[in-house]
Amino acid sequence: MAIKTPQGSTIDIPRGTRDFAPSQAIAMDEITSVVAEVFRRFGFYPIMTPALELTKVLTAKAYGEGQTKEMYVIEGSESALRFDLTVPLARYMAMNKDTPLPFKRYQIGPVWRKDEPQRMRSREFMQADIDIVGSAEVQSDAECIAASLTAIESLGITNYRLLLSSRPILVSVIGLFKIAQDKSQTAIRLIDKMPKIGASETIAQLKEAGIDGNAAQQLVSFITERMSNEEKLSKVAANAPDSKPEAARLSALIAALGRYGLKGEIEIDFSLARGLDYYTGAIWEAVVEIEGSRQPTIVAGGRYDNLIGIYSKAPAPAVGSSIGLSRIFDLIEGRALRKSYAAAFIAQIGQENTQYATDAATALRGAGIRVDLNVTTRGISKQLEYASSLGIHYVIIVGNKEREAGKLRVRDMLDGTEALLDMSQTIEKLSK
Questions:
Q1: What is the pLDDT of residue 275?
Q2: Quick one: which of 57, 70, 1 has its CA closest to 312?
Q3: If pLDDT is split at 50, 70 and 90, which confidence band does 393 have?
Q4: For the residues of 323-371, what is the DSSP string, one character each?
Q5: Per-residue pLDDT tens for 263-274?
Q6: Is 119 domain-assigned?
Q7: Which residues share a beta bridge with 410?
Q8: CATH code for the domain in which residue 406 is found
Q9: Which CATH number belongs to the domain containing residue 313 in this structure?
């Protein structure tokens, strides 16, 4: 919401961005911590790459024309804000050829897209990516998917569906209906929009793109027919024989994922196309429904065996999965938000007790307890009001009596009870 400055001008933040209040920032921080810990549990390790990449890196046949139009190019420079975390990884691998393979990396950070802002779709948002470079095995696909889904399950999201598809199968099916090769990528992008615009509109847009109407109708009918996963894979293998290896690979991937104890359903969905051009194999998305309405994708990824070869003479197979942390935040923001990390607030009565209060805070912090210390001259009632407004569980009251006795008065702000404790007793109580 725009506001007026004292000088009469108006200030706001750019469209598609947002501020995070303390409770929201804490929630995002905790989401990020949970996800990072799961990634580490799966054996991934971090790298950091710049928010800025050279424009020629980002436009080197990696994303496709539709995506490059959404990049934020820095005027008067040769740089742009990164569009995702995958192309920077490919550039990193090209510049670090001695990296031991397989390379299991994770990266968490903001990315930017000049997209039209809407619900759960911003121009600046947080992503958490994991990738395995140097392995073409199905097991590496399964590890990336399982780590991503285990992370969202650790955040309490278990009502998801994992949608699986394959770019090679889609290309084979498109060719089955005699759609010209130069229209293939256009068809893939339009198919990818089908969950949002529906089958009829997809057919209409395929026609507008110059694809024969009968072919468009047959293509959409083929990929949307309701069947079991096994039936769908058998159908594409039978009708598009060159897709047999990839169909077998998807079947093996489903079997591999069955060993991870994941809670969500797995569904083969050939209407899933993923808009980025660098995918070469299996692709996936995890989606949730709330009150019957499908929400924007929260996990997505796929295999991209040719991407690193764009930047390096030493190409390597690769696969990766990304969690949309900003979308996760929107889904779970209302759960157990807090406004402070502090376990206790130290309130003092009179300025003569400032040193005693500071010594207490230092001792508690040294014991690993998060403590907020009063830094004002406000009265005790205002200090208690402040601690209550932040939802801090305990207030430690320090006055002349407490200082002279070498004790701390610990008040439980939830039930109003108090206890006069020494430092060791206070540490023991707050550590629980």
A1: 67
A2: 57
A3: very high
A4: EEHHHHHHHHTTSS--S---SEEEEESSGGGHHHHHHHHHHHHHTT--E
A5: 999 999 998 887
A6: yes
A7: 396, 419
A8: 3.40.50.800
A9: 3.30.930.10
Task: Looking at the structure, tell me whether residues 317 and 365 fall in a common domain.
Answer: no
- Percentages helix, strand, coil for the chain (3-state, rounded to 5) are 45, 20, 35
Distance (Å, rounded) from C-alpha 372 to C-alpha 341? 9
Is residue 151 domain-shared with residue 223, that is, in the same domain? yes
Answer with the residue of higher pLDDT: 70 or 388. 388
What is the residue-wise DSSP string for 34-59?
A: HHHHHHHHTT-EE----SEEEHHHHT
Helices 229-239 and 167-176: crossing angle, nearest 10°? 50
pLDDT tens digits for range 207-220 = 888 887 888 888 88
Q: Map tokens 């690769």 to a residue.
A: 318
End-to-end CA distance of the chain: 42
Q: What is the pLDDT of residues 171-192, one digit of tens each?
A: 888 888 878 777 777 888 888 8
Same domain as 262, residue 295: yes
Full-model pTM:
0.89
Same domain? 172 vs 198:
yes
Return all residues near 293 (Cβ < 8 A) that are at least 6 apart.
Answer: none
In 3-state terms, what secondary structure has residue 233?
helix
Q: How far is CA 110 from CA 40, 46, 107, 120, 172, in A?
A: 20, 15, 10, 15, 35
- State which of 299, 332, 365 marks the end of a domain: 332
| Residues 120, 254 within the same domain | yes
Cα(191)–Cα(185) distance, rounded to whole angstroms?
10
**Cα–Cα distance, 113 to 222 (Å, whole number):** 33
Residues 67 and 215 placed together within one structural domain of the fold: yes
Instruction: Report, as an integer, the average pLDDT of 386-414.
Output: 96
3-class SS letters over 165-228: EEHHHHHHHHHHCCCCHHHHHHHHHHHHCHHHHHHHHHHHHHHHCCCCHHHHHHHHHHHHCCCC
Same domain, 262 and 134: yes
**Checking DSSP bridges between strand 52-54 and strand 79-81, what pairing results, if any?**
antiparallel
Residue 338 lies in a domain: no
Number of structural domains (the chain) is 2
Range of the domain at 88: 12-332
**What pLDDT shows up at residue 425?**
97
- Please tell me whether residues 265 and 389 are part of one structural domain: no
